[in-house]
Amino acid sequence: MGVCATDAYGVFEEVGCEVGNEITYNAIIAGLVNMEKDEDALSLFIDMQTVGLRPTALTFVSVMGACLFSKIASQVHGQAIKMSFEEYTSVGNAAISMYSNCGELDAARLVFRRLKEKHIVSWNAIIASYAQEYLEKDAILAYLQMQREGIEPGEFTFGSLLASSELVEVVEMIQAIFQEKDVDSLRKVVLLAGIIWLSASCDLFSWMMCERLKGIRHMEKVVKKRLWYPLVSGSVYTGVDFCKKLCGVSLVRSGESMEIAL
């Protein structure tokens, strides 16, 4: 029995159970994956079955985050299918991300196609998979299809699109979105935050592109700290300066918020 399994049994003893149950195993496996102790998580996944416990959908969602090699990924996914977890959207989403992390884009695509219900997490997972491979056209097409199916994109969606796309395509996409009359101001703020993050990280936008996007002024005046601070931190000067160039606005710190001074 490995160190990980020994530690797990110690936890089981503390909570008053001799072997542990699915809930305790799931909690420890999830914790190990979060700490990037992938081998330990996989060992415990095997160990729970050795003692006669059946993995749950949550077990597979967690352990798939520990599968960084194609062979292991296909084995874990194959077991999930055999145990009839293929129809669980959460398991499918985890499998898409797992295969993407292993560089198996075709497998990720196949899992995505087979999903009976595609939620925002499903679309984000496949768009992120395309972004990781720099397939900007596929990422944008997936984004457009997501909109056609009535799924509202979120911060993560825009972040993946911005990271995957050529700058000219990004500019054209942004202009198209800001010209849509039915796009709410919060979504525009989220998109602008993504642009600022991209500029602050890579300093890729030229003055020409800033000029093309100059008209973006109609947006929320106050954006919560959770949105702006993570994006601007680490390159505050560049981010704020870029925002001023882009929109003719400045950012002012004010307690829990970052105000946009028009």
Automatic annotation (TrEMBL):
Pfam families with a match to the protein in the record: PPR, PPR_2
InterPro entries xrefs: PPR_At4g14850-like_plant, PPR_rpt, TPR-like_helical_dom_sf
Superkingdom to which the source organism belongs: Eukaryota
Recorded GO MF terms: RNA binding
GO term, biological process aspect, one: RNA modification
Renumbered ranges of PPR repeats: 21-55, 119-153
Protein name from the UniProt record: Pentatricopeptide repeat-containing protein
